[in-house]
Amino acid sequence: xxxxxxxxxxxxxxxxxxxxxxxxxxxxxxxxxxxxxxxxxxxxxxxxxxxxxxxxxxxxxxxxxxxxxxxxxxxxxxxxxxxxxxxxxxxxxxxxxxxxxxxxxxxxxxxxxxxxxxxxxxxxxxxxxxxxxxxxxxxxxxxxxxxxxxxxxxxxxxxxxxxxxxxxxxxxxxxxxxxxxxxxxxxxxxxxxxxxxxxxxxxxxxxxxxxxxxxxxxxxxxxxxxxxxxxxxxxxxxxxxxxxxxxxxxxxxxxxxxxxxxxxxxxxxxxxxxxxxxxxxxxxxxxxxxxxxxxxxxxxxxxxxxxxxxxxxxxxxxxxxxxxxxxxxxxxxxxxxxxxxxxxxxxxxxxxxxxxxxxxxxxxxxxxxxxxxxxxxxxxxxxxxxx
Length: 387
Ligand SMILES: NC(=O)c1ccc[n+]([C@@H]2O[C@H](COP(=O)([O-])OP(=O)(O)OC[C@H]3O[C@@H](n4cnc5c(N)ncnc54)[C@H](OP(=O)(O)O)[C@@H]3O)[C@@H](O)[C@H]2O)c1
Description:
The protein is an alpha/beta fold. It has helices at about 15-25, 40-50, 60-70, 80-90, 105-115, 125-130, 130-135, 150-160, 185-190, 195-200, 210-215, 220-230, 270-275, 310-320, 325-340, 345-355, 365-385; strands at about 5-10, 30-35, 55-60, 75-80, 95, 115-120, 145, 170-175, 240, 250-255, 260-265.
């Protein structure tokens, strides 16, 4: 039997966190959860620590540390903030980054710099820090496996391709998009979209931020940047195809016209298990398709006029440097403002566009540079939201 792999699950109390825990429960002989971290849901974090006998727990501030220390007792080592995430990211063979947003950056960088397997759900850190992540990936033994279902699908499709830099035998990557809750809506209907409408995703159940990103199609824009950074393929060879059933999770088109796709029912446990089990596939029916009844698959181009977020993402990719970090930071602020009822749905992408209009070219030479750029983009986005 293969040896037990230790796992750190950072962002344990969220949607990806819950589904990762489900995989770990069913694979308790193969994996040992040794470290967890979360944000505000302390009762849930403590319950996970107890259930899995976790001895290393990360929280976001000193008050949370005091609360959890009382709850869990002296045998549990509690760490705080970004430094805590950095420490926990060194503690396991596999580090699952399921933290939300730019706060996940220390996890991505540390896991790779320490030669760990990084199972990455947190796309924002990769998008913002692409050049820094690229350097960290060259650490001996470091590996990066994508949990995002589209990128996990592409990873599987590319397995049939010789791993040559830039994949010269690949014509393009085809990222599928469900189209979100507003597929087919006119611009005037979109102007009246509510929070309830936006949170009502047709095929996936996810955290609030990515659900809103899916409604604006910014999620797909971010995924274009993510695919380019992950596979080293320029964005002009990454296309988006709307596929409302969310069965084909993405495709790779080769130069001879062949297209390879990965199919399953929408269930995040499948890509999570793929990233944990690699090179073995874990034996479960998650996502399995039933071909005994009719199954319809349809594809259509995205409506780029109604959903300008996709074009903004391509533009940020072409600008390079810190532009993707600005895009992602501005989007985080705008989505949080929408969820807090401070702006309308239709203003989310407007805020991002206005921040990007003021982008000042920066090659993104260092981590300090990235943090400064992130802060500038956030400040500008807050300014626009407040005006
Ligand atoms: N959900 C999906 O199906 C899906 C699919 C593909 C990719 N992703 C990506 O996966 C990431 C997580 O998404 P999600 O849907 O799971 O989000 P979510 O449900 O909102 O969960 C986010 C997690 O991050 C934690 N967190 C927030 N701020 C933190 C901080 N400063 N330090 C430590 N932990 C912090 C939250 O803790 P509390 O809840 O305790 O506050 C929670 O555990 C995102 O980058 C998303 O784009 C998600």
